[in-house]
Amino acid sequence: MVSTGPTDEQPDTDNPYAGLLGGDPSHWAFGIAAYDAQSADPLAGVDATLPDGVDRRDLATYAVMLADDALVMSHRLSQWCSNAPDLEEDIALANTALDLLGQARLLLARAAAADPSVVPALPEGSPVLPEDALAYFREAGDFRNVRLAEVEDRDFADVVVRLLVFSTWRLALLERLRGSRDSVLAAVAAKGVKELAYHRDYAGRWFLTLAQGTDESRARTVAALDRIWPLRSELTDVHDVEARVADCGVGVDPSTVSAEVDAVLAQVFAVSDVVRPDASPLAGVHGRKGRDGLHTEALSRMLAEMQVVARAHPMGRW
Amino acid sequence: MSGVRAEWPLYEVFVRGKRGLNHVHVGSLHAPDDEMAVRHARDVYTRRSEGVSIWVVRSDAITASSPDEKDPMFAPSADKVYRHPTFYDIPDDVPHM
To answer: Which UniProt keyword terms apply here (chain B) (predicted)?
Structure first.
C-alpha cells in the first residue's frame, strides 16, 4: 500500500510527537489550554482539611521546612543552566530543579492553607499568591531549609555529591510521608517519590562515573564529598516541630531515615571505591541550624538574586 | 590516563511514543556512556511525556548507506508499480497498514 500519511481515522502511531498538542490539560505549558496561575489552585482536587490532633502552626512550619529544602535546592540547581559540562547536563539539572520547584509550590501552598498567618504581609490588593509570597518575601532567617540545600557549588562534582546526598535523604523521607494523615502531604510525597528516585539515580550514576573516571574527576569528587559531608548529619537531626508532627502521624521523624540514607550512600561509595568521610558535623550557632532559620551566608546572597524581581513588584501580576 | 577525549561520544536516540508501535529516531545527543545516554535521552526527548520506551545507540555503531550510492541503491525501485500492493482492497478492520 502506498503510504498516504496519517489520517483522522488512522493516527500516526509512529511519531512520538504526534498528538502532543492534543488538548491534554497537563500540556498547558505550551499554550493549548489557557492556564491562569493567578486563579489556578495548586491543591485542587486534594482534601485540604486539617487532620485531627495537629497544631496548624506546626503543620504549616513543617510544610515550609520541606518546601524550603526543595525551593533552595531547586534554585541552586537552576544556576547550573548554561554552566554545566554539556548541554545535556544543563537540561538534566534544570529538569530536576523544576521537579523540586513543583514540590515547593505545593508545600508552600499547603503551609499557607494550614495557617495563613505564616504568609508575609503584602500591600493591600497585591495579586501575589500565598505560595509566591512565602517564596519571595521572606528573609533568610525565616527559611527553614537544611544547610545542605543552600551551599554554593564550586564545580560539577559538588553538585553531583550534593544532589546524591540530598535526593537519597529526601526520597527516604517522602517514601514515609506517603502515609501521612494529611492528604496534601501524602499526595505531594506520592508525586515526589517518582521524581526523587530519578534524581538519586542520575546523581548516583554521575558519582560513579566521576569517581571511576580520570584522576582529576576522582580527586574532585573526593574533595567535594569531604566538603559536603559535614552537612550530612543535620539532615537527620530532629527539630521540635518535626518531632511533634511525627508524633501525630502527619510528618516523618528524620532520624528514622538515617540508617537507610547511610546504607544507600554506602552502596554508592562501595561501587565507586570511595571511602566514606569521617568529618565532624558542621556546628550550629547555640544549637541552631537550618531548620531554626540559622544559615550560612551563602543563603542570603542566593535569596537576594532569587527574590529581587518579585520584591521590586509586589503588585505585579505574572 | 589514556583514552581521555575532550568530547563525549554521540548517541542516536529512538523513542517509542505512548500510542506508537515502533521506536522512532528523534535526534541525537552526547553522553559519557551508554547508561547516561539513556538518562540524557529521558531528559532531552521525553520531558513532555512523549515516550514510554527509549533506545540509544552510539552513532559510530551505525552503518549507513552512502549518498553517492543513491542511484544504484534506490532508483531501480522507482518504476516498478507492480511491487506496490495497491491492487487489493484493505479491509477496514486491519489497522496499521
So the answer is: Oxidoreductase
Residue B92 lies in a domain: no
Burial class (CB in 10 A: 0-12, 13-18, 19+), A192: buried
Q: What is the CATH number of the domain that holds B52?
A: 3.10.20.520
Contact B48 A1 (CB under 8 A): no
- Percentage of chain B modeled with pLDDT above 70: 95
Angle between helices A56-78 and A87-114 (to 10 degrees): 160
Decide if B26 touches A, using CB distance below 8 A.
Answer: yes
Whether B54 maps to a domain, the answer reads: yes
Q: DSSP secondary-structure letter at A119?
A: S
Count residue pairs from A and B with Cβ separation < 8 A: 78
Q: Do A205 and B39 touch (CB under 8 A)?
A: yes
| Residue B95 in contact with partner chain A when CB distance is under 8 A | yes
Instruction: Residue B78: give the domain boundaries.
Output: 10-61+68-83
Identify all chain B residues contacting A17, using CB atoms and an 8 Å cutoff: 17, 26, 50
Contacts of A24-32 with CB under 8 Å at 24 or more apart are A26/B49, A27/B48, A30/B48
For residues A177 and A246, the answer to whether their CB atoms sit within 8 Å is no
Interior angle at CA A54, CA A52 and CA A59, nearest 5: 130
| Per-domain residue ranges of chain A | 56-277+287-312
Q: Is residue B90 part of a domain?
A: no
For A115-174, what is each residue's pLDDT tens digit?
999 999 998 888 999 999 999 999 999 999 999 999 999 999 999 999 999 999 999 999
* Closest Cβ–Cβ partner in A14, A201, A205 for B24: A14
Are the beta carbons of B18 and B49 closer than 8 angstroms?
yes
Nearest to A214 among B1, B19, B36 (CB): B1
Please report, for residues A129, A177, A185, A241, A251, the alpha-carbon distance to residue A245 in angstroms, rounded to integers and kept in the order given. 26, 11, 12, 6, 5
pTM: 0.84
CATH number given to A56-277+287-312: 1.20.1260.10
The tally of domains found in chain B comes to 1
Interface test with A, best of B15, B19, B89 (most A CBs within 10 A): B19
ipTM score of the complex? Answer: 0.71
Any domain includes B57:
yes
Which residue of A87, A88, A89 is the best one to mutate when testing the B interface, meaning the one whose CB has the most B CBs within 10 A?
A88
- What type of residue is A266? A
